[in-house]
Structures are given as C-alpha cells and as structure tokens.
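--- STAGE predict ---
source: upstream dedup step, 1 unique chain passed
mode: sequence only
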Amino acid sequence: MTGTLPAAWGGNGVFPAMTVLELELDISSMTGSLPSAWGGNNSFPALSDLLLTNDADKVSKLSGPLPESWANPAAFPQLFLHLGSSRTDQSCLSSTLPPEWGSPTVWQQLEEMYIAGCLEGTLPTSWGSSGAFPNLSLLTLELSNLSGTLPPSWGIGSFPALQYLQIGAGISGSNLLSGTLPPEWGDPSAFQNLVALSIANCIIHGTLPDTWAIPGAFPELNTMTVFGMPLTGTLPASWANSASLPSLLSLGLGIDNASTAAGCISGPLPAAWGSPSAFQQLQIFTLRACIQGTLPPSWNQADAFPSMQFFEVENCQLTGTLPANWSPSLQFLDVAGNDLNGTLPAKLASLMQLQQLTLNANPFTGQLPAAWGAPGAFPELFVLECYDTNIDGGLPDAWGSIQAFQELQILYLYSNNIAGTLPDAWAQKGSFPSLLGLAIRNTLLTGTIPGSWSSAGAFPQLQILDLANTQIRGALPSFSNSGLSVIAMENCSFDSDLGPLWASFAPLQLISLSNNSLSGSLPDTANGLGQLRFLNGRQSLGRDCAFVVASSRQSAVSHLGPKCGSSMGRFAGTNKLVARVVPEEVFV
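--- STAGE serialize ---
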C-alpha cells in the first residue's frame, strides 16, 4: 500500500459497524500523519481495536503527531488503543502526548493504551486529573524520548482502574525522564488497583521513597521493577513494615553496569527486611550492580522471606561469607560477581527445592563440600555454576554417588584452583544420570582420564566435556560409547595416536585438541565424520597448521586436511549449551 491514511475514513457513518482496524505500517509505503479527521463526531462508533504498529526490524514512513482531535468523546466511544513503533532510530509516529487526552469527558471506555517510539515532551499532568481515563487498565509508554519528570498528580486518586504501568525512556540517550520518584505516588488514594509497575532506563535520580511503603500504598501491587537509573541512597528500612506492600511478589532494582552509572543504591542492606513480618509474599528479589556490605544475619533465618523462590544479587559489592541458612522455598540462588569469601556452606545441600545455584566470580576459598553429594542433597538441582573463584582441593568422590545430583544437567567448575585427578566414582553406573555439560577447564587437574569415563553407561546424557587448559595427560580414550557432541581438551598433555580414534569421533560436532603431543595423521576424507563441524588440532600433530574448519552452514566437514596460515573462524552452528560452556578462545 502507498499514499496516506484516508481522512475520508473518519467521515460520519463511513464505518458504522467496524470493530477492528489493524494496519501493519512496516509492510506498506504509507506516508503522512494520523488523520485529524478520524476524530470527528461518529467517526468510528463501534471501533474497539485500533492497531497501528511497526515491526521491530522494519521501518514505517508514517510520522507526525498524535492528533488532539482524537480526544473527541464522540469519535471513538468504544476504543482500545495501540499506537506507535518499536523503533526509535527511524521515522515513525512522533509527537508529544496531547494534554487534551486527559479530559474527563474523553476516552471513557479506553482500557489499554500502548504507545512506543518517538514520543517527545513531557508526561501530561492533565492525564492524572480526576475523572481522566476511568477504565484504563494498562498504560505503556516505552522506547521514547520523553523528558521532564514523573507527574506527582498521577499519584493522587488518578487512574482508578489502572493495573499495569510501564514507562521506559530513551535508548537513544537524549531527552530522558529525570527528577525523582514522586513520593505522592505512595498516597493511599493512588494506584489502588495497580498490579505491576515498571520504570526503566531513565535518568531519574534520588532515593526510593519511604512513602511508597506506608500502610495503604500500592495495596494490590505484586511486581515492582525500578531498573537502569542512577538511584542513590539505601533500601528503605521502612519498606519492611508489616503493612507495607502487602501483595508484593516480585521486586527488581538495579542498573546494567555499576562502573558506568552515575550512582547506584548502596548498602548496608537493612536488617529490618529480614524480619519475619516483612515481605510475607515476596517470591522474586533481584538486585543488580548495586548494594554494598554484607548480607544481614536476619535475612538468612528460617522465618525470613518465607515465600522466597528466586534470590539474585548479581554484580554488586557484597562482602563477607555466603550464609548457610535460606528460605526452604528457595529455587534459584545467584550471588555471582560479588566479593563473597570464605568456604561454601555444606548446609546449602538441605535446600530441597533449589534448582539453580550460581556462585561465579567470588573469591571463595576452601574445597567443594563433599556433603553436597550426600544422599538426599539437592534433590531438584539442575544447574550448579561455581567458576572464577579460589576454590581448591579435589573433586569430591562423594559427588559421584548414585544418590547424588540426580537432576543435575549443568556442572561448571572451570577457572578455579581445583587439583587432583578425575574421580573414577563420577563415572560409575547411575552417577550424574542427567548431566549434559561438564566444564572443568583452567584448573590444576592432573593424571589421566579414567577408563571408566568412556565406558558404556558413564554419563549417559553428557553432550559437552571441557577439560582444556589442565595438566591432564596420557592417552585420549575412545568415546564411541558416549553421546558426546563437544570435546574441548586443548592445552593439555595428551600423547595419543589419533589414527585408531577417528571412528570414535563420528558422533562429535566439535573437537578442540590443539597444543597437545598427539601423533598420527588426519584422515583423507570425511567418511564417518558426517556430524563434525569444527576440528582444532593446531600444534598437536608435530606441525603448526594441522587443523580443519568446517562450513558453518553445512553439517558435514567441507574440507579435511591441513590448512596453513588461516584463522580458525567461529563455530557458528553450536547451540546455547555449547556457547555457554566453551569459551570464545576455542573458536579462534
């Protein structure tokens, strides 16, 4: 389609029965603006859905303002409204938000308003006037260049039916919302039905208002996200009042990167938040790139946060030790990227509902607790990540118990000071029955790969084995009985003859064996290696250039034989599991 949106469509009686009008502007070549004539008397008397959208990957040539005339109460008496674009870098609907739309005589039936992209100017104070938007349940203003402040008037008896409020400003980096979070929004007459509040990616500063948690404030709010802005101060102790935020299920606070932010919420964490009477319903708690100090002892008592399921304090500046006591309902614990030290608590294994434990990038010391592999430990755990720490000692034999880690799928222990040998017990029948990825690269492991590790029944689900950059030596085992698809063992001390092993590589998609002392030669053809997509044998076969690069668009090896003076290229065909466990340097 070309041309402009026809003004004549807004004529009296032209579409008396139309209920839905949807125009995907990105697939057309329409230009011009939204017709003011569509706001005439009786223009669309039955219209309930007006959808003018752009796809995120395409461009609309439609531009111009949001028409003030559309506030005519006789124009769209039944309308649900969805306007705008998901792009901010191309031509699209651009305007200020019309103050006239906040008149108590218009938009009486409007339930949802979604406007994204190219908005400028301020949030109209008039939109918070008494009687405005009496039935509006959803208001989303995102990917915009709004400026000014959050209007205090929006929080005094305004939007009586509003349940979802999302305001996300300017990824373009200009004209962003500033000011502070309005204390008035915590007035007991404000937002009585609000269920979810999200304010993100602005330059709002200041502190979290104490008034947002006074008795009667946000009585129905179950999700609050205040993210991507330079807030300062501390978490308000007053929010722990037993009558505060009684319905809150999810609280997310923080910024993307503390090192680039103008400021962030700091510590110490308030001990009052761990009171048995505080946050009785809270299930999800996320802090990112903010906060300092230690986790208060009160936060880790059995009666603290009784409903907590998801606890993430990531890339903050937490210090001290990792507490042993957590809510028994906890399912997800992530403290990555902090300054936590000391040993790992054996008692964590008593968390019967824990599914993911992420401890990365902390200076933990001591050994991996053998008790984590005891019968009954971690019965639901499927992800255990403990890399980039100072953990030492050996891999516990107890973790190979047939009663241990029955659900574990991901075990990442790389970049630690772990030493000793690979335990035979880990490969006994029944051990790690669900394990998909095992990464212990960049450690001090020595010895050889036990024969049991390649025996039938060992690691029955394992797809990725990464032992690179260790001191493991000896012969490479045959993995013909396994379901492995990725083996990363570069920079070790293997001294095998590869000739007899090629047949066992048939199921593999990626092999990285560079910088070993391997012998033998590469096969002349790709017969039997139909799944292989990447082979790195550089400096492993007595020459500097013996390696293979498979086409990233083909499932079979496209060239097999020495290639000299070439870069390896990325392995583009891997899945998320491979990308997560095998570091970038394997592919270059």
